[in-house]
Structure formats: C-alpha cells, structure tokens
Amino acid sequence: MMKTEQLIDSLSQNVSRVPRHAVPRRIAVGLAAGGLVAMLLIAVTLGIRPDLSLAMHGFSFWMKWTYTLSLALGASYAIIRLARPAPASLQGLWPLAAPVLVLVGIGVGELARTPSSEWLAMWLGRSWTSCPWIVLTLAAPIFAGLLWSFRKLAPAHLRASGAIAGLSAGAWAATIYCLHCPEVSAIFVLTWYTLGIALAAGLGALLGPRLLRW
Length: 214
Description:
globular
C-alpha cells in the first residue's frame, strides 16, 4: 500500500515550475482586456468629454481619479492575494476604507463652503440617475476579464473573491468613466460613483460561488 509520502512524491514529479509573477501577470492581462473593452464602450456610446485636457488642470478631475484609482489598485492587490489556493486573511483589506474617508472629508469641506440651498443640486448633479448604472455596465467586461484570469487560478474563498473582483471591476470602470463624466462635486462622487462600485461588488459576491468554482 502506498504511503502518504510516496503519493506526494509521485504527484510532485515532473511538475513544471510556475513563474514567480504568474498570478499578477494573468490578473493584469484580464484587467487590461476588460478595461480596453470598457474604454471602447465609453468612446463609442458616451464619448470622451470634449474639455478633458482643460478638466485635467482642475482639482475635481484628479479628486475623482485619485478616489477611483486608489480603490481599483487596492482591490486588484487583494485579488492577487485571494487568487491563490491558500488561506488569506481579509483583514488586510481595511486600507480600502482610506480613500472613502478622505473623500468624506473633502465632501464635508465642500458642503461647509456652499450655501445649504445648493446642497441638493451639488449632491444630485446632472447625472445621478444614470451614473451608478453606467459604472455597473462598464464593470461587466472588466469582471469578465477577471473571470478569464481566474480560470487558471485557484481561489479558496469564492464569495469573497467574487466580491473583490466585482469591487475591482467597478472601481476600474469608474476610473474609465471619469473620461466622460463632467460632475465636479465630491459628494456626488462619494454617493453615486460609490453606489455603482458597490453594486458591482455585490453582484460579484452573488456570482462568485458559481463562476469561480474549480
């Protein structure tokens, strides 16, 4: 009868070495492919804002981009950790709250400088009814790219991996959406951008156990 050690030795023979950065490289390919599709969707359907070069000299554009990009990078790092078939603590995700807290501070300062009669208009902007749904739609191809990445990986926490993949897809989608969105209020971004990102994360949590099973 074969002993456990002998079984392990037989299974480990002729196993090719996995490159050190294989996981982040595959995740990056999936994100890049999905992001390219999302950018094409923006360019074809909504269009890049015509004053983009001028907007990039203002605070509001970089406020939005810093917020969404920091969430996207943090979530992408978490995906790399969760994509391996090893126990991974979710406690390391707490830095993702930092961009939200910073934007809350900016929003409070913004409200303090604005007459209360203008708060509702600042909060709703001109596109509050469509913004979250556009972000969610743009997140779909990015999430699909991440699903392709996971096909050769082995996540152990399927629901958490799905949620973080959705969060990453939503945050990257919001980053791309900044190329079109003319809204300038921090409180608008905090509410409606975050809602779109949260919807993508929630959908990812629902689909994770089904689509990430291996």
